[in-house]
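EI: anyone free to look at a 311-residue chain?
SC: sure, send it
EI:
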Amino acid sequence: MSQPSQQPRPRLDARGAVDLSTLARPATPPPGSPGGLPTAGGYVRDVDQETFADVVQSSTQHPVVVVLWAPWSEVSQQVAADLAALADEDAGRWLLARIDAEANPQVAAAFQAQSVPTVVAVLGGQPVPLFQGAYPREQVRAVLDQLLAAAEANGITGRVAAGAPAPEPEPEPALPPLHQAAYDAIERDDLPAARAAYEQALRENPRDAMASAGLAQVGLMERTAGADVRAVREAAAARPDDVDAQLAVADLDVFAGAVEDAFARLVELVRRTAGDDRERVRLRLVDLFEVLGTDDPRVVAARRALASALY
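SC: here you go
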């Protein structure tokens, strides 16, 4: 008999709080971090929207190979790593430009990238699509050889000046003791201890915003721990006016990253309820706002919608 589908335990961010920004995706370290892409340098550059034009301009001197990757995609990380190794082998015959597609959506759109990894060459300022998705390294080598032959035929034979490796990222500042205690408790799956640590931090400093967020996040983890996702969703679909059922599925949606869906569900429930039920829904929304953070644009929009529903 199949087991009920349950929510995975979320990862933590560098501040010691629960990182809910990419809960539906595997955690992948950034470039230069252990387990992440190698630090840029040599014949590899990390490119963003601001530096993109300079890289395109350099393609009049030497070929540029652009890899659009994402931190959550292991396949794109592997393709980027293979390309970096091949760039070093070719010792400056072409430049590898790594672009985080999610952080630079305008650049991804310029290349009409529909998925990651997407690999595109730029020759003389003109894009040349190469491949998408997983690609064996030996086949990547063959594609690059064809690219270099085309570049030579067009007189683009300059060499890339090897750049110095990027500086190592500065270490994150140490967490306050109670926040570290909460972080450690979550790591060992001891949510009551994490809650106690955050509550003590708030008793000592009621204005500790990070402790407030951490406490809200631990509350979400407690409410969704061991949840049978299918059963919760079926109950919510069958009983649209059952406040408990709607609160439960909204928690799961936030946990899974479907934040807008959760907020829209609860705002609509505020419109349909009154009295104590309405107040319960409002308080849960406020708590979920705390989970995401007041500066999150989804929270800003949902706050406006909630105000409209209430008044």
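EI: The CA atoms of residues 182 and 197 lie 5 Å apart.
SC: 👍
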